[in-house]
Specification:
This protein has about 425 residues and is an alpha+beta fold. Helices cover about 30% and strands about 35% of the residues. It has 7 helices and 24 strands. Strand 18 and strand 19 form a beta hairpin.
């Protein structure tokens, strides 16, 4: 510590000497600059004029040298090269065209018509006329129940009805001959009418033993077998697991598959757009895809838009119908729906990546005829799959799409060269066979 203290003491002792040296140097500098300061202070118009006239050729020569040097510097070191040159961009020319307004939604494939076949009477199954998954026609016979009792009852009542009719005809003849009274004829007519009604009722009961398909479609899994006892029931309970489907009260289900429907919901915010498109004469078109995106989409038309909004999900239900000739769509499948709600006429569209979001809102860069850019504020009216419909840009404008990251208003740009397909390498010619 003693050495450090001694060194500090020496430094402190030299500080006044250093101060005096600095002050002396400043005084010498001031003495040198003082004549020039006095000369500048005494400058006036007359002295400046005298100096200019005296050294005019020297001043003119100096100005010429400075001007020539500036031009030479600009020639060999242009401003473009000094600034890094024009920025490479990719641009598009925007034009007016019709843009479809697409609403995308998810939905479920549902059948256009589906019927659970159930018996109207308690009986046993006698014959099954169809197979699992068979296509059936409207009115085709599906099941026959044991009709022996119903047929016997019908035949008995039919015989009684025929006899009562004969009794009525005979009574008419007797009334004409005054053998019976008018009241007897009316009683005979009532008996005949009652017997015929009973016979028709028995015929209806007999028809319940022959179960026919009310619609055309595809039969599902048959849940009964010959000899199974079936009962009249209005309750149908279906349980589906990963391996099987079981039904209670349903002998088979007939499902119409062609055409088939798709049901989906449209958010409340898109309802005005949907209703505006519905006012047109042409029906709204839909494209439905199921499963992998690589599969072709199905095209159809909107059947109905529900008359109320579901407040729990803030959406309205929409049902559309699509053809299903190949029977590849089945009820219950998940579907992606694209609905063409309307069309914007003469709209300006640009790629969405051309729009820059900044402090002043959304802008695009426009390239003028001198290849300089200027920012243009725009308003996005609609956006779908990378394309935005905007306002604020005129048709025919050249809009920057790529390379806009470092652009500023007034920046010089150049268009990127389009990639050309590389020419295929020439194939080496096969050597000619040697002559023997």
């Amino acid at each position: 510590m003693s050495k450090i203290e001694s060194a500090l003491d020496k430094v402190l002792a030299k500080l006044p000497v250093l101060k005096n040296w600095v002050m002396s140097q400043l005084c010498k500098l001031w003495q040198k600059l003082l004549p020039y300061l006095n000369w500048i202070k005494n400058l006036n118009y007359a002295t400046v004029k005298e100096f200019t006239v005296k050294y005019k050729w020297r001043i003119l020569l100096l100005l010429i040298v400075l001007y020539a040097g500036s031009k030479a510097y600009d020639h060999f070191f242009p401003a473009i090269k000094k600034a890094g040159g024009p920025q490479t961009i990719t641009s598009v020319i925007v034009e007016k065209k019709d843009i479809p307004l697409i609403i995308e939604a998810t939905g479920t494939i549902i059948s256009n018509s589906i019927v659970d076949i159930r018996p109207m009477t308690t009986n046993t199954v006698k014959t099954i006329h169809i197979k699992d998954g068979q296509e059936v026609k409207e009115g085709q016979l599906l099941f026959t129940l044991d009709d022996r009792n119903d047929r016997a009852n019908y035949e008995k009542l039919k015989a009684l009805a025929d006899d009562a009719q004969k009794q009525y005809l005979r009574a008419k003849e007797l009334v004409a001959k005054n053998f019976i009274s008018r009241a007897g004829l009316e009683t005979s007519l009532a008996n005949a009418t009652s017997a015929q009604a009973a016979a028709r009722s028995a015929e209806v009961q007999l028809s319940f033993d022959s179960i026919r398909s009310p619609i055309a479609g595809r039969a599902g899994i048959i849940n009964v077998f010959p000899g199974s006892l079936v009962q009249a029931s209005n309750v149908v309970t279906t349980a589906t697991s990963s391996t099987a489907t079981s039904s209670v009260g349903s002998m088979v289900t007939i499902t119409q598959l062609n055409p088939i429907n798709v049901q989906f919901v449209v958010p409340e915010k898109d309802i005005p757009l949907l209703m505006d498109g519905k006012q047109a004469d042409a029906p709204l078109k839909v494209r439905v895809s199921v499963g992998n995106d690589g599969k072709p989409a199905f095209e159809g038309e909107v059947l109905v838009i529900d008359n109320q909004v579901d407040p729990s999900i803030a959406a309205v239900r929409v049902r559309a119908q699509i053809p299903n000739e190949k029977m590849t769509l089945l009820p219950g499948q998940f579907a992606r729906v694209s609905l063409n709600a309307n069309t914007l006429k003469d709209a300006i569209s640009v790629p969405s990546e051309a729009i820059v979001i900044g402090p002043r809102g959304r802008v695009v860069y426009i390239v003028d005829k001198d290849d300089k850019v200027e920012s243009k504020p725009v308003k996005v009216l609609y956006e779908y799959k990378g394309t935005s419909v905007i306002s604020g840009v005129e048709s025919g404008s050249r809009v920057v799409v790529e390379g806009k990251q470092n652009l500023r208003p007034g920046s010089k740009v150049k268009e990127a060269k389009k990639a050309t397909a590389a020419s295929a390498p020439a194939k080496a010619a096969a050597p000619a066979p040697e002559k023997k």
